[in-house]
Structure formats: C-alpha cells, structure tokens
Amino acid sequence: MAFVTRQFIRSLSSSAALHAAIKHVTIIGGGLMGAGIAQVAASTGHSVVLVDTSEDILKKSAKGIESSLKRVAKKKFAEKPEDGEAFIQKILKNISTSTDAASVVQGTDLVVEAIVENLKVKQDLFGALDKAAPEHTIFASNTSSLPIADIASSTARLDRFGGLHFFNPVPMMKLVEVIKAPGTSQQTFDSLLEFSKALGKHPVSCKDTPGFIVNRLLVPYMLEAVRLHERGHGSKEDIDVAMKLGAGYPMGPFELLDYVGLDTSKFIIDGWHEKDPDNPLFAPSPLLNKLVAEGKLGKKTDVAVSSFI
Ligand SMILES: CC(=O)CC(=O)SCCNC(=O)CCNC(=O)[C@H](O)C(C)(C)COP(=O)(O)OP(=O)(O)OC[C@H]1O[C@@H](n2cnc3c(N)ncnc32)[C@H](O)[C@@H]1OP(=O)(O)O
Ligand SMILES: NC(=O)C1=CN([C@@H]2O[C@H](COP(=O)(O)OP(=O)(O)OC[C@H]3O[C@@H](n4cnc5c(N)ncnc54)[C@H](O)[C@@H]3O)[C@@H](O)[C@H]2O)C=CC1
User: Fold this and answer.
1) At 306, is the pLDDT very low, low, confident or very high (cuts 50, 70, 90)?
2) Phi and psi for 129 in degrees, rounded to 5?
3) Residue 69 sits in the same domain as residue 143
4) For binding NAD(+), which residues are annotated in this chain's numbering (predicted)?
5) Ligand 2 pocket, residue 170 CB under 6 Å
6) H/E element holding 82?
7) Helix 253-260 vs helix 236-247: angle between axes, to the nearest 10 degrees?
8) Is 214 contained in some domain?
9) Confidence class of residue 300 from pLDDT cuts 50, 70 and 90?
10) Cα(2) to centroid of ligand 2, in Å?
11) For this structure, is 215 an active site residue?
C-alpha cells in the first residue's frame, strides 16, 4: 500500500514537473495559425518567441495578435474598458519575435511548428532545429494533414515529437487534437495534453492517421461542397446559407474554405489524393486549383469575396 502511495505521489509530482517544464515556447510560422497559437500561449502566461522568415511578416503577425487581443479585451472588459489596454500590454510583453529559429530554440521547452503544409519544408526545418535544441525540448507540428511520423523522421528525437493540431481562429476554438505518433513517448504525449489544458483548451487524443479526427471529416465535406457547385447543383451563396441555416454550422463551406486558406486546403487534398488516388473524397477540384493559381487564397490575401464567397 505504502509502495502504491509512493508510486502515486511520484507520478503526480513527475507530471507536475513535466507541466511546469513547458514555460518557454517557440512558435515557428507567424501566419494565421502561428500568430493565434502565440497569442493563446502568451495569454496563459507562457514566454513565447514567434519566428518567421522576415521582419515584415512578423510585424504583420504582431498587428494581427494585437487586433485579436483588442477583440478579446473589448468583451472581457466591457464594464471597465480602461483595464483592457493594460491586459493587452501584459500579454504582448510575453511575446518576442525572431527570424533565427536555430538561435532561439536553444532556450525553449517546446517548439510548435505552424509553417506551410509541405512535408519537405517541415522536415528541413525540424532537421535543422534538432541539432540546435536542447535534449529536453519537445517538438510538435500543427500540420493539418501530414503524418507526424513522416515529419519527425528528419530528427533523432522521435520520442519527444508529437502533433498539436489547433483550430482556426485559435483564440476562439476550444479544441486541440494531440497526436501520438508510433515513436511518441507516453511522457511527451502527457506533456502535450497538459500543455493544451494549460492553454485553456480541450484536448482530444488522436492516432497519427490522415486528417486525425476533424479534418478527415471536414475537408472531404468542404471539397464536396465545391464539387456540388462545380456540377451546377447550387450557387456558392445558397450552399453556404443552406449549411448555416439547415445544419447549424457557424460558417458555410465556402466561407470556411476562405477562412482556412485555399492554398492550405489545396495542399491537404492534393497530398491525400497522391497517396490514395482512387478515393473520390480526395479528388482535386478544378475551381480550387484555378483560384490558388491566381493567388486568390481567401481571407489571408484579402480576396475572400472575390474567391469563394
Ligand atoms: C484546416 C485545419 O487544419 C483545421 C481548422 O482549423 S478547420 C476550421 C475550424 N474553424 C471553424 O470551423 C470556424 C467556424 N466559425 C466559427 O466558429 C465562428 O464563425 C467564429 C468563432 C470564427 C466567429 O464567430 P461569429 O459569431 O460567427 O462571428 P463574429 O461576429 O466575427 O465573432 C464573434 C466574436 O467572436 C470573437 N472573435 C472572433 N474571431 C476572433 C479572433 N480571431 N480573435 C479574437 N476574438 C475573435 C470576437 O469577440 C467577436 O466579436 P467582435 O466581432 O465584436 O470582435
Ligand atoms: N489555416 C488553417 O485553418 C489551419 C492550418 N493548419 C496548419 O498550420 C500550418 C500553417 O498554416 P497557416 O497558418 O494557415 O499558414 P500561413 O500561410 O498563414 O502561415 C505560414 C507562415 O509560415 C511562414 N514560414 C514558411 N516557411 C517557414 C520557415 N521555414 N521558417 C519560418 N517560417 C516559415 C510563412 O512565412 C507564413 O507566415 C499548416 O501546416 C496548416 O496545414 C492547422 C490548422 C488550421
């Protein structure tokens, strides 16, 4: 009995130690997702470094974080707006930026990658970071569709590598999918679950399967809406209205595609189609391909109205 109690106390204190360990977070990629993850991590008291390829992009990310925080503050301090600015500044103080990932990961507990949805680019990044980061640092990818095991294969820390899949817009969406790849250790997985909870999110456990849970259902649905429109069976506007009013979705599928980014959606579907070309759910869409080729990526390029909705 005493042994069981000692074991229990030891397991509690070790999980508390693991949780306490993730204090410093490096987010790579300051786009739609990375900026949102940085905001939420900073808002929950973590020290955050946000990395991207240029100062200009980082300036845009910082502006996006500030305007999102203003929306949060407007609601939170509706009765006392004067406290809102101090709230925003306190959170912004937790975030610094850099264009040199290798140097900033030297002091980090967790790297969350949110760069372009491309296996080779993600592998190159993690391969380089693996040499620079300390032993204890956990690596996580926010990939929407790529196998975590494939991304992790460019590193020698398969046990300290997992998936942390957030949802857009990160400050509003409560879910995080925590992905345990075959090489992910239980300790790493538990740390990622704890970290998600520390961000105020609701984690669900996922296997390393295509699209995990949400995207395996959501992406074929969005693409089927495009195909329905391509067949001439409904206007984009009517399909969006139908799914909002008839199925209770907060956004219609075209609106959501614009919100997610047409480039990211294309990367996802093309990757799955390449692996499973006979699956009609993963068939590429001529309309999506055309819009991406024209540089119309949805909300992120401010052409949402001219692209899908
Ligand atoms: C591709 C992948 O790998 C995975 C994915 O992410 S798939 C995409 C998953 N996401 C979704 O499905 C999103 C579906 N949409 C929604 O849930 C909702 O439309 C939404 C939460 C985005 C917005 O809510 P809404 O009520 O429809 O619209 P809206 O009036 O703009 O927002 C309401 C309030 O939410 C808050 N809000 C919305 N977006 C925000 C943001 N980015 N930051 C902070 N606050 C925000 C604000 O308080 C806002 O009020 P204000 O406009 O006064 O600032
Ligand atoms: N858009 C969405 O709704 C969601 C996207 N994701 C995933 O998150 C990841 C990022 O997606 P978004 O934020 O939408 O993309 P985005 O295009 O908005 O941002 C990507 C950012 O990464 C930067 N970047 C590219 N290569 C880099 C490198 N080597 N080093 C540092 N920065 C680099 C780019 O400059 C850009 O700012 C993708 O893997 C995507 O599949 C996951 C959940 C939802």
Assistant:
1) very low
2) -70, -30
3) yes
4) 29-34, 52, 117, 122, 144, 168, 300
5) no
6) helix 82-93
7) 100
8) no
9) confident
10) 50
11) yes
Q: Measured from the CB, is residue 113 less than 6 Å from ligand 2?
A: no
Give the Cα separation of 108 and 50 in Å (integer): 12
Contact in structure between 111 and 121 (CB atoms under 8 Å): no
Cβ(50) – ligand 2 distance below 6 Å = no
Q: Which runs of consecutive H residues, i.e. helices, occur in 173-279?
A: 186-198, 214-230, 236-247, 253-260, 262-275
Identify the helix (H) or strand (E) that includes residue 47. strand 47-51
Question: Of 169, 186, 207, at which residue does a domain stop?
Answer: 207
Please tell me the total count of domains within the chain. Answer: 2
Q: Domain containing 27: what range? A: 2-207
Query: What's the whole-model pTM score?
Result: 0.93
Instruction: Tell me which residue has its CA closest to atom 28 in ligand 1.
Output: 250
List, for residues 120-151, the tens digit of each pLDDT value: 999 999 999 999 999 999 999 999 999 999 99
Calculate the dihedral angle through the C-alpha atoms of 40, 42, 48, 54, rounding to the nearest 10 degrees. 70
Residue 177 designated active-site: yes
Q: How long is the chain?
A: 309
- Output the six-digit token pair for 163: 């998936």
Let me know: does 29 contact 115? Beta carbons within 8 Å.
yes
Which residue's CA is the nearest one to ligand 2's atom 37? 31
**Looking at the structure, do residues 156 and 265 belong to the same domain, yes or no?**
no
Closest listed residue to residue 165, CA positions, set 99, 106, 234, 211: 211
List the structure tokens of 43.
């808002």
Ligand nearest to the CA of 256: 1
Token readout for 239 is: 């399909």
Name the 3-class secondary structure at 89. Answer: helix
In CATH, what number is assigned to the domain containing residue 250? 1.10.1040.10
